[in-house]
User: What shape does this take?
Amino acid sequence: MSVKLFQEKVAVVSCGIVEEEIRKVLYGKTAFLIPFFLDPALHIYPERLAEELNTTLDGLSASFNYFIIIYGHCYPNISELQTTS
Assistant: This one.
């Protein structure tokens, strides 16, 4: 009987404001969760935040099976973006 290796790759996309905390949580625990952080100042410009988040997810989609998006309510429609990505 062979051992099946876990081959999923999950991108964790988050605001850079919580980078330190997320890196501490992920450190040494798993190789399949890869973090990516966006500029925390984007919350000042909701349209740019949406654009950057969409661009990042589009760019990563060929290399990752799933996404975990960690954001607060930085702009009004973030919930809709998360459900369509």
Remarks:
- The chain has one domain: 10-84.
- The chain has a mean pLDDT of 82.
- Residues 10-84 form one domain.
- The beta strands are 10-15, 33-38, 66-70.
